Amino acid sequence: MTRSLIAAVGAATVALSLTFGAVASAQPALPAPQAPADAVPSDEPRGGGDQLAGGAETDDSPLAGGIGDLADAGEDLAELSRLSEESGALGEELHLARAELERSVADRDRLERAAGVAAAAAAAADGTARRDQSLVDHLAAMRYRGGDTGATRAAVLAESPRDLVHRLDALSRLSGATTTALDASRAASVEAARLRENANGAADAARVVAEDTRKRMEELDRRSDEMRVRMDEVRRRVDALSDSQRALWIGGPMVPEGYVAPPVDGINSAALRTALTRLGAPYSWGATGPSEFDCSGLMVWSYAREGKTLPRSSQAQAAAGAPVAPADMQPGDLVIYYPGATHVGMYAGDGLVLHAPTYGVPVKLEKVDAMPISGIRRY
To answer: Which ranges of the chain have pLDDT less than 50?
Structure first.
């Protein structure tokens, strides 16, 4: 399988998605989706990754050996293969960039809300500090107007022992109130200063994230424009292929002879069975089904039908889940391709992978090692 058959391009913006949606009507006619070939008799083993060494029978199509073999069929197809691969890689990067932008926007909004809450708390603390200071000032004025408020003066002015007790009690309450008010005022001032510092820090953090978000949006817009140009070029070239070139571009059959879908024994194999119902579905940049897909979109749709949420891009899918050794590969595992994790398929047993290759090529089964594997993940 050529590297050209690994394209998967993200719908980075809503406008871009709408643009891509019009592509389907322009694509070459493809076989209708098929159900899994359960009933096809086969003596071949199915299931785990022990088929990697031998795999399925060799695909005799000129696309099976990669770009070098494709070059033998014509420089135009070889160049188209490279362009398609680059478009697919950029598309998956755009899926990832969109997810990162959404997180950045959420962080910005969260920090801006936190800054607003902190500013309100600081304002309230300032009000408390001013109120407590006003009380301190009022008590101090009372002491000043009353002159010496000590116990000696109270004893001199008292008209009777009972009056002395009352004067001393009032003196104690006034002194205590003054001390309490002063302590409260100081504490409120310290708290107000702390909250103002928090509010300023939250506002600064929100500004930094907001600026980062703005730059991400600008970069996403720029790369989306680049993606649109690349897609238009791939679409134009594929649609202009001759019948013989188109046969080479599509490659071998959607289902190798003798393939039998593995039995359903859990969510992963159920997701594979669901994905197999999309055999023959057309490739569409940024699509997640149910009738059109890009490579990571097929994985997302198939697992979502079984109640499991997968990340949107092949790079994110390569980072999540649990790593799996090639010898332990099981139906439903995601097979990540190329060093940049720019393509993904689903292991289908019998040494085959189910994937959405590229524009003009339907969802199909290929040899799992037809492309360089960079990782295997289980969800």
So the answer is: 1-72, 147-148
Specify if 80 maps to a domain.
yes
Positions annotated as catalytic residues are: 295, 343, 355
User: Which range of residues forms the domain containing residue 172?
Assistant: 109-220
Residue 168 dihedral angles phi and psi, to the nearest 5°: -65, -35
Please write the tens of the pLDDT for every residue from 5-20. Answer: 333 333 333 233 323 3
Rounded CA-CA distance 146/161 in Å is 21
Among 202, 220, 238, identify where a domain stops: 220
Model pLDDT, residue 195? 74
Q: Where are the strands (E) in 295-363, listed by range? A: 322-323, 334-337, 343-349, 352-355
Would you state the structure tokens that stand for residue 342, as one six-digit string? 């720019």
Q: Are residues 198 and 288 in the same domain?
A: no
**Cα torsion at 108, 110, 116, 120 (round to 10°)?**
-160
Q: Which two tokens stand for residue 17?
A: 């998605």
Query: Is residue 8 within 8 Å of 297, Cβ to Cβ?
Result: yes
Based on the domain organization, do 329 and 233 belong to the same domain? yes
pLDDT for residue 15 = 32
Residues 25 and 151 in one domain: no
